Amino acid sequence: MLQLSYKAQRYVILFGFLTVPLLLLFTFSVYPVLALFYFSLTDWDGLGFDMKWIGLQNYKEIFSQPDIFAVFRTNLYYFFGGLIQTAVALWFAVILSERLRGRYFFRVILFLPYILHSVATVIMFKNVYHAEYGSLNTLLGALGLESWQQMWLGNPNLVNFSLAFISMWKYFGLSMVIFIGALQSIPRDPYEAAKIDGASGWQSFRFITIPSIRKVIELMLILTLTGALEAFDIPYVMMLGANGTTTFVIQTVDTAFKFQNYGLASAMAVVLLAIVLIVILVQRKLLFKGGD
């Protein structure tokens, strides 16, 4: 057998371990992005390989039509809902990190919505929001609050609030668990020293907890922002983008599959990718410029 030196064996092992991950990365990440950018420069109906090269024409069409970007107003509902969800999740994480009886039970209950499939979640909330037999209007009627009963999905002024609440409810548990993990990594010594010095609970939270988990808060804000920009499953399954619930991703999917314009849809996807990267960069440079 061929005898390899120790140094050669190291190189062979490193090459073997790196080849497969890099091959998978190129196959499922790099190549699709490059192909997406190429498709965005063509006039293609998604069938066959008959692609007409049109250069930047799709991008010119995107930036010349304000209606394409107007749908980002819908994404704002999910962004502000995500901010509220993050704040409430942090509050619950602080409570459930203490020596509270039954805290593991509450953690499981609050995390359960996240593991539910989005379609199952939407079907459940259809029964909650239904104008006639929905459980929400039924509860309001039982409490004598008939004036509060609404067409939660039929009213254009309420439908996006209703859908954003579903997103908040579904992803709340994930945010809470991430915060709990971060809180449990903080040593107890600073809290004990602050307590001896007479610091209140709010002061300990503000000057010890928040700085200690700043990186995690930054991560959660990035996830909130990107999640809002990429909102798709809940509004699409629930409303198919009707009644003013169309998001940018829904509009991109409709452009590709409903109008058979894959070139324009690819350009819209590239623009969304660029917007996400720019927003994350700006967020890190401005909002957290004082960090490490």
From TrEMBL:
InterPro entries: ABC_transporter_permease (IPR051393), MetI-like (IPR000515), MetI-like_sf (IPR035906). Keywords: Cell membrane, Membrane, Transmembrane, Transmembrane helix, Transport. Residues 71-283 form the ABC transmembrane type-1 domain. Pfam families: BPD_transp_1. It is a multi-pass membrane protein. PROSITE patterns: ABC_TM1 (PS50928). PANTHER family: ABC TRANSPORTER PERMEASE PROTEIN, INNER MEMBRANE ABC TRANSPORTER PERMEASE PROTEIN YCJO. The keyword Transmembrane applies. The keyword Membrane applies. This is ABC transporter permease. The chain crosses the membrane at residues 12-39, 76-97, 104-125, 161-183, 216-242, 262-282. GO terms for biological process: transmembrane transport. Its main location: membrane. It is found in: Cell membrane.
